[in-house]
Structure formats: structure tokens, C-alpha cells
């Protein structure tokens, strides 16, 4: 019986682990100068070609040059730089500015890729799977190695954070940042975007995926940089509510200024009343989202506790020595008692009863049913 219970515990644990695999880990960056990730990856495999792809979310409404990716070397402080509003730069000179064209706003996730090779002497930049431009690089120029990679901030020089006027903190979110040792084609980049943020399509690149997301999130984090479980739908709604409130407040301020100039107090009162109602509705929506998020967190905590209890049961099961059918004689009904004909007959009756269930799968319900059956209940009485 006990070994069957161990099997049930193992199955339950496996099921819980598989369910947990749907959790998405996102890097959330604070908006202060000390909020970043800095490390020195091996860039040797990217000297002749590479592709940098990531899902990015702009959160801060203000500030243009907010850097989510900055690779710098001693000889080139801007070896690779990318901002959250559509500006990219390579090799300390050539750049691509698509700020006005892309008009990136806070909250929506977007897919961004830079794909370069020395042989083509160009880097193609993609936004949401579509090529938006190219950066021409010097012929024969290769990517410099031995540099420092910073996520979420700008470097003034390799290994030093830019701190003038509060630096250039990203303050946004990153997900599935990977660097590939090849120049991805337009079709491959488009496929990554079409598959969606929750897909694993980038794994199709196999050996070319050299600097992997799962390794990047293990790097030391400085300041307020958090690795969090994210429900993209819920998180997007919460972000939209926050952005809507900011928009309403901005519109209210603009309305006040215009109406003061027009000396139209009545219209101002009406506008303020409508905006207050809109703000109340938005606050109610935010409260509802907060309640749902709290409930989800409670459910996640209960699941974690159940998983820990299951793991303890599983460990206890497997810590026992190898099981033998004769272990039943250790039970108090048999141990230190005479093995009489009546006990043997009663035990045989139990196993004969089991014959009637030949071909039935052993489950918790079957075990519970057999325990409730009168057969064998007199084993300890004979």
C-alpha cells in the first residue's frame, strides 16, 4: 500500500511542476540610476555576425534616450546601444533613428531585433517583425570583444554607469532577450514576432542561440531590478489603467489651462466633473485588478505550500529502504504474535478479494474503496 502511495505523490508532484512551467519570468527595472544589470559575456562567437532579439516594454512616459541594451568596450563606448523609443547605434558612430516613425508608447510589449554581419557590412533593425531600417557599418569591421554589457542603463565608458542628470535608466521591462551567433533573416525575425510573446520559437535556432535568456536572468542584479512571474494579460490591463490615469490627469491639467485662458468657468466645472467620474471608474477598475491579483497571489502561495508538502512526502517515501511484500508482517497485527491458521486464512481472504479487481487501474479511489470494505477488517482480531 505504502509504495502505491509514493507513486501517487510522485504523479501529483509531476503534475504541479508541469503546471508551473507556464509561469513567465520578466525582468522589471526601476527608474533610478542604480537600477541595472552589468556583466561581461563572452562575445567571441559574435565577432562576425549576431542577432539581438528581445520583447521590450516601455513604462516611463518621459525621456527619450532610455537604454535597455548597452554594450561598451575600452575602444568603443557605443559598440551596441538600443533605447526603448526606437534609436539604435553601432560601432561608436553609425546609428538608426526611428523615434518619430515608431512612436512607441508606454505599456504595449513590442518585439525588437538587430541583425548584423561583417560580410554584409550592415545591421538590419526590426520592430514587431518588420524591418524598419539598416545601419551601414565600416567594411571589415568586426565586433569588439572583452567589453561590458549593461541592461537598463547607459555607460559613460566600459564598466562605468552614466550618472549625469540621473543617468538614462530604462525603467521598463524585458522578456526573452537572446543573442544569436548568426544574422537572422527577415523571415526568421518575423516568425518570432508572429509566434507571440508566450512562444518558444527562438529555441528553433538551437546552437546559434549562444547568450540565452535563461542565463541572462541569472546574472547579478543591481538596485531595483526584479525577476517576477507575470500574467501578461493582467499586467497589461494594470499598466493600461495606470497609463489612462496619467493621461486623464494630463488632459485635466491641459483643460484647466485652456479654460482659464478662455475664462469659461462653467465648461471647466463640467469637464472636471466628467474627469472625476472617469477617474472613479478607472480607480474601481484598478481596485478590481488589485483584488484579482491578490487572489491569484494567494492561490499561488497555496500551490507553493502544497508543493512543499508533496515534496516532503515524496522524500519520506523514497528515504525508506526497498519494499518487500513481507513488510506486512511488521504490522502490529502480526509482529510478536502467533501466525495462526485463522490469521493466514483471513489474509488469504483479503488477497482473494483483490482477485475480483483484476484489470482495474489502482487509484486513490480504489484504495479508499478497499479500505471501506469489510474484508480483512478482522485481521487483528484472530
Structural topology:
Layout: H1 2-20, E1 24-29, E2 36-39, E3 49-57, E4 67-72, E5 80-83, E6 87-90, E7 95-97, H2 99-102, E8 109-117, E9 122-127, E10 130-136, E11 148-151, E12 155-157, E13 160-161, E14 173-180, H3 186-195, E15 209-211, H4 213-216, E16 221-222, E17 225-230, H5 232-262, H6 265-319, H7 341-355, H8 364-372
Helix pairs in contact: 1-6, 5-6
Summarize the model shown.
By secondary structure, this protein is an alpha+beta fold. The protein contains 8 helices and 17 strands.
Can you offer a commentary on this structure?
It is a single chain. This protein has 382 residues and is of the alpha+beta class. The chain is 38% helix and 23% strand. The protein is built from eight helices and 17 strands. The strands form three sheets. Strands 1, 3, 8, 9, 10, 14, 15 and 17 form an eight-stranded antiparallel sheet that branches. Strands 7-6-5-4-11-2-16 form a seven-stranded antiparallel sheet, with no helix packed on it. The longest helix has 55 residues, at 265-319. The radius of gyration is 31 Å and the shape is extended.
The helix content is: 25-40%
Largest sheet: 8 strands, antiparallel
- Rounded to an integer in angstroms, the radius of gyration calculated over CA atoms is 31 Å
Structural class: alpha+beta
End-to-end C-alpha gap? 22 Å
The averaged pLDDT comes out at: 84
Counting DSSP E segments of at least 2 residues, the number of strands comes to 17
Shape type: extended
Parts with pLDDT < 50 across at least 5 consecutive residues: 1-23
Order of helices and strands: HEEEEEEEHEEEEEEEHEHEEHHHH
Amino acid at each position: 500500500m505504502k509504495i502505491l502511495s509514493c507513486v501517487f505523490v510522485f504523479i501529483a508532484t509531476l503534475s504541479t511542476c508541469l503546471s508551473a512551467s507556464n509561469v513567465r519570468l520578466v525582468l522589471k527595472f526601476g527608474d533610478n540610476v542604480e537600477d541595472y544589470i552589468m556583466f561581461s559575456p563572452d562575445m567571441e562567437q559574435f565577432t562576425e555576425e549576431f542577432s539581438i532579439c528581445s520583447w521590450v516594454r516601455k513604462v516611463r512616459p518621459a525621456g527619450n534616450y532610455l537604454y535597455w541594451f548597452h554594450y561598451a568596450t575600452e575602444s568603443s563606448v557605443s559598440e551596441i546601444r538600443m533605447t526603448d523609443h526606437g534609436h539604435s547605434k553601432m560601432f561608436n558612430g553609425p546609428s538608426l533613428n526611428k523615434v518619430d516613425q515608431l512612436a512607441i508608447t508606454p505599456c504595449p510589449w513590442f518585439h525588437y531585433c538587430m541583425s548584423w554581419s561583417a560580410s554584409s557590412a550592415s545591421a538590419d533593425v526590426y520592430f514587431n517583425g518588420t524591418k524598419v531600417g539598416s545601419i551601414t557599418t565600416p567594411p571589415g569591421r568586426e565586433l569588439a570583444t572583452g567589453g561590458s554589457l549593461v541592461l537598463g542603463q547607459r555607460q559613460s565608458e566600459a564598466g562605468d554607469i552614466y550618472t549625469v542628470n540621473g543617468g538614462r535608466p530604462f525603467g521598463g521591462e524585458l522578456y526573452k532577450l537572446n543573442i544569436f551567433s548568426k544574422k537572422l533573416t527577415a523571415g526568421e525575425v518575423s516568425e518570432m514576432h508572429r509566434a507571440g510573446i508566450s512562444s518558444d520559437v527562438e529555441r528553433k535556432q538551437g546552437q546559434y542561440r549562444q547568450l540565452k535568456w535563461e542565463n541572462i536572468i541569472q546574472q547579478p542584479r543591481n538596485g531595483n531590478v526584479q525577476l517576477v512571474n507575470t500574467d501578461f494579460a493582467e499586467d497589461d490591463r494594470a499598466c493600461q489603467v495606470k497609463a489612462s490615469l496619467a493621461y486623464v490627469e494630463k488632459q485635466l491639467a491641459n483643460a484647466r489651462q485652456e479654460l482659464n485662458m478662455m475664462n469659461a468657468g462653467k465648461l471647466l466645472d463640467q469637464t472636471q466633473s466628467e474627469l472625476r467620474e472617469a477617474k472613479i471608474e478607472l480607480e474601481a477598475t484598478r481596485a478590481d485588478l488589485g483584488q484579482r491579483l491578490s487572489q491569484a497571489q494567494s492561490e499561488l502561495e497555496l500551490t507553493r505550500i502544497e508543493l512543499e508538502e508533496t515534496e516532503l512526502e515524496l522524500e519520506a517515501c523514497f528515504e525508506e529502504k526497498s519494499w518487500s511484500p513481507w513488510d506486512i508482517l511488521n504490522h502490529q497485527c502480526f509482529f510478536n504474535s502467533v501466525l495462526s491458521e485463522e490469521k493466514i486464512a483471513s489474509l488469504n481472504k483479503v488477497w482473494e478479494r483483490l482477485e475480483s479487481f483484476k484489470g482495474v487501474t489502482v487509484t486513490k479511489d480504489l484504495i479508499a474503496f478497499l479500505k471501506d470494505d469489510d474484508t480483512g477488517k478482522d485481521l487483528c482480531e484472530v
